[in-house]
Amino acid sequence: KFPWEMEDFSKAPSGEEEQPQRRVRPPSLAELVLPDAELRRLRTMIIHTKERIKVKKLGITRNVVQAIHQKWRTSEIVKLKCDQEVAMNMRKVHEELEKRTGGLVIWRAGAALVIYRGKDYAGPPKERWIPTESVSKPKESVEKPEKSHVSGELLGIDTQFKEFVNHIPFIEAEYEMQMDRLLAELGPRYADWKGDRPVPVDGDKLPAIDHNFKSPYRLLPYGMEPKLSDREFTNLVRLARQMPPQFVISRNKGLQGLAKAMVKLWEKTEITKVAIKQSVQSTDNAKMADELKRLTGCVLLGREKTHMIFYRGKDFLPAPIAAAFEEREAMSFANKDVEDKARMLPTGKVTEKIVHVEQRPQETEADIKLKEWIKNQEEEKRRAIVMKAARAARARRIERRLDIAVRKKEKAEEALSKVEKLMKPREPSEDRETITEEERYTLQRVGLKMKAFLLLAGRRGVYSGIIENMHLHWKYRELVKVVYKGKDRMDIEDTAKMIECESGGILIGIYPVSKGQVFLYYRGKNYRRPEELRPHNLLTKRKALARYTETQRRE
């Protein structure tokens, strides 16, 4: 329907336009907690605060938090300035800053913000996670909470928000402490972690090569499908989505230490979440995932830009059970060797105990090695035959190409000899006109300033059309300017002398310019125009190009 056909459409009276409703900004935590007079006082102090802390592209790191607490020792407020990468999401920076420092953001504009330490500020906290006593006694911790470094105004708001700020629910705290104790055994933590607790292990500080590491022993239970069903896969991905990562890495290779820690963690949990450091360049999560799958044999559930999720697999066995299976397997192999040796003994020396061993046709270790040796010999013979046939085919192909090239060369030489028979260059004349150095210098200056010139590309060489054009130029002027595109020094000199002999002029000089080489020719004082401008002893333009083509074919 059109707007005027709708029932609830009402047109505003003429001259009175409805003002657009402005979106009301929700109040910040500082505006809810602090009185108006106190908030105005703090915002007035911002004008006199000149020093500021720069937040670089890594975000709110541990160094930034320490710098803020250092400033709070002498000042109530601290001004921060964020880089362009961090300033793209200032709301996240606002929340993370209040969460990690315990202060209140009282002013924010663009990429700058100011944080207030609070009225009852007593210094930075000593620990960032809940101690073990608070988990063992949840009721006492709820009834008698420890005094936090959060401002006194925060403690004066409603009870639900106070419990959210100062306390973690008991179930989450218990899980956090268990995971924290487990991660403490795996390796050092990542210092600049900005996400949820517990703080993950820094995989880059684990050893790149661990000589004691070996891939976990795997055995799939009887009757179980090795692959995950769609429902199982979906449930595992949903479960891992809410989990904080246990490891943080940036290396693409050298992950044996991380793989060993993941195998140890899989004894307690089925899923491992590995985060990727965003501040490091040249990270490739595809190479990381392939390396970890090769080392551990796990299943990759998901691979995003920021994290990877691994499932230990249905055939994973904890270390004690895997050791028992390996011991049992070693015992079975030992019994098999004893039975094989017993069968190889003479019949008369077989004891009564060995006679009752089941006589089943089994191959000894020597038979297996013999079969492998025979198989390798056959494979080497087959490979040698294939290589010999390939070499023969390659030789035939080279001979065929060589034969074609020889025939083409002979054909080009025959065509070139026919063309060169038509070319009979003149010999240099001994009776030539000479000029003085002063005349040569004057003609040089005049010739280099001339705009009209003859172009000699260099492929065809000197042909009859060049000499004809020179005589046409000499009809109206005494000098001829020839631009030659060749680059070989010997070829340049030979071409200049040949033009001088064929035209009968005087070579003034050879001068390099931006377009190539310039030949200047003076017609002489006793110049007489010949009856035939085009000489017959040189090739035509078409035959000169054919000569160049055949020369290239021969080469």
Structural key phrases:
12% strand, transit peptide, four-stranded mixed sheet, 13 strands, 19 helices, Translation Initiation Factor IF3, alpha/beta, five-stranded mixed sheet, 4 domains, 555 residues
What topology does this entry show?
Layout: H1 29-33, H2 36-48, E1 53-55, H3 62-72, E2 77-82, H4 90-101, E3 104-109, E4 112-116, H5 132-136, H6 138-143, H7 152-155, H8 159-166, H9 170-186, E5 201-202, H10 230-241, E6 247-249, H11 256-265, E7 271-276, H12 285-296, E8 299-303, E9 307-311, H13 319-344, H14 352-355, H15 365-421, H16 437-448, E10 454-456, H17 464-474, E11 479-484, H18 489-503, E12 506-513, E13 516-522, H19 541-554
Parallel strand pairs: 1-2, 5-6, 6-7, 10-11
Antiparallel strand pairs: 2-4, 3-4, 7-9, 8-9, 11-13, 12-13
Produce a short descriptive summary.
The protein contains 19 helices and 13 strands. The chain has helices spanning 29-33, 36-48, 62-72, 90-101, 132-136, 138-143, 152-155, 159-166, 170-186, 230-241, 256-265, 285-296, 319-344, 352-355, 365-421, 437-448, 464-474, 489-503, 541-554, and strands spanning 53-55, 77-82, 104-109, 112-116, 201-202, 247-249, 271-276, 299-303, 307-311, 454-456, 479-484, 506-513, 516-522. Strands 5-6-7-9-8 form a five-stranded mixed sheet, with helices on both faces. It has a four-stranded mixed sheet with strand order 1-2-4-3, sandwiched between helices.
